[in-house]
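Morning. Coffee machine broken again, so started the prediction first thing and wrote up yesterday's gels while waiting. Chain of 144 residues, entered below exactly as on the submission form.
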Amino acid sequence: MSWYEITEKYNAIKYKQGSWDIDEGLDCISMIVLFMKDIGKDVDDLIDGSKGFEYKGNILTATTFLDYVNDKVEINKALKLFIKQHCNKVDRMKKGDIVFFNYRKDILLGVYLGAGLVMCCFETYGIKKIKLRTFNIMEIYRWV
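Came back before lunch.
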């Protein structure tokens, strides 16, 4: 699949917290992990729940994530830790990097697609591509 085909595959997918089924909808973690798989990263152990990430002394996986976090603040904290445990912080963006940025009054993350576009998962809109040009980029991470 080409880069364009991969990015289009996710465009307009609806939001569904905790889902790993692209037909049902995705949340931020599942969007990122499934996208990484599509671009050739080895993430099968994250998808099947045999590997996870540490959060407050617990190992959260694809299958147990919502057992430990359920409000927006906790989910955002866990999401940031997930990224930090699976990625390296970098200074310059390239396609496929994960970007944290200010969006209105929130801090969002998305996958950088190139040409100033980032793919984000919104509760109300689902997965959308937006232009980064007007938002303050806070941190950039690259999947290991």
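The chain has a mean pLDDT of 92. Going to sketch it on the whiteboard this afternoon.
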